[in-house]
Amino acid sequence: MSILIYAESAEGKFKKVALELASYAKKVAETMGTTVTAVAVNISDVSELANYGVDKVLKVTNEQLKAFNAKAYADVIKQAAQKEGTKLVVLSSTTDSLYLAPILAVGLDAGYASNVVALPESTSPFVVKRTAFSNKAFNHTEINSDIKVIALGKNSFGLVESNGPAVAEDFAPSLNNADFTLKVEHVEKTSGKVTIADADIVVSAGRGLKGPENWGMIEELASVLGAATACSKPVSDLDWRPHEEHVGQTGKPVAANLYIAIGISGAIQHIAGINASKVKVVINSDAEAPFFKVADYGVVGDAFEIVPKLIEKLKEFKAKNS
Q1: What is the pLDDT of residue 92?
Q2: Cα separations (Å) of 47 from 10, 58, 211, 300?
Q3: Three-class DSSP category at 296
Q4: Angle between helices 95-108 and 70-84 (to 10 degrees)
Q5: What is the per-residue burial (b if ≥16 Cβ within 10 Å, else e) of 27-55?
Q6: Which residues of the chain, if any, have pLDDT below 50?
Q7: At a CB cut-off of 8 Å and minimum separation 6, what does 142 contact?
Q8: DSSP 3-state of 279
């Protein structure tokens, strides 16, 4: 009856979302009087999960699973859930997990709730709080199926250390060759920088920067803050920045702890895609820019004057506190 999580990893290391998922599941398990089991795919050292409350790790090692495949991964997690007699599966809200979650829910004949942002309000009946309408509202969803699948929103719970031993067990699920008709030949990876998916802070810019040659100060600000860089849709459409940096409703969704928008007017599609971020800071020379209506903090002024001063002050602060 253990709670089951899928612990996502990349290049042999667990992603931050996996540790947040473990922290969340541990608290739910304490409420329900049970334990936490994690499924880890192609990762040798799983000891880190024990630091966040995982009691048991099912280690799956298979070259066929080297590249993510939603059907195959959903089937692996399904078999793990059946093996453990799991009644609750907790996933993250990453792109990969959002692909596999509906497939998994159908396979387990389970009710599914996405965008969960808090611990269950009750476990009998099982009720969770979720975001709705592009993060503009909340709803309270009751899941009545015997098995339940929920997806935790990014940065909605945080990391909670809970030291203890975790038992590692090799698990060899059966794989269906029909799931591998689509072959992944190449995966482009970003190295040496923080990715949007893993970032707690995102520094984003728009057409207000006037051209790609002015992005140096955005990258410098991101470097000082340990942040990821992002951009609005028009910027990526103009090829000023790579398309993987496009954030918003039609790009990558952002749920950062801090989102800084520089020279972005705030089209409704952009705001809808970043509205889950906890603190939003806007720098724009147009005092009537729509973004100011949803910002927690706003600065009206020329980004070419404000951003360099901000970088300077941040560097001074880091130097004093290093």
Answers
A1: 94
A2: 15, 12, 46, 48
A3: coil
A4: 50
A5: bbbeebebbbbbbbbebeebebbbbbbbb
A6: none
A7: 125, 126, 127
A8: strand
Distances (CA, A) of 234 to 35, 173, 224, 241: 47, 45, 26, 10
- Its pTM stands at 0.82
**What is the dihedral angle through the alpha carbons of 273, 278, 280, 281, rounded to the nearest 10 degrees?**
-150
How far is residue 276's CA from residue 135's CA, in Å, rounded to a whole number? Answer: 6
∠ CA 95-272-117, rounded to 5°: 60
Structure tokens at 20: 């947040």
Q: What is the pLDDT of residues 16-32, one digit of tens each?
A: 899 999 999 999 999 99
State the Cα angle at 153 between 56 and 122, rounded to 5°. 70
Other C-beta atoms within 10 Å of 66: how many? 11
Q: How far is it, in rounded angstroms, from Cα 306 to Cα 209?
A: 12
Residue with tokens 């790579």: 242
Q: What is the pLDDT of residue 187?
A: 65
Element (H, E) at 149: strand 148-152
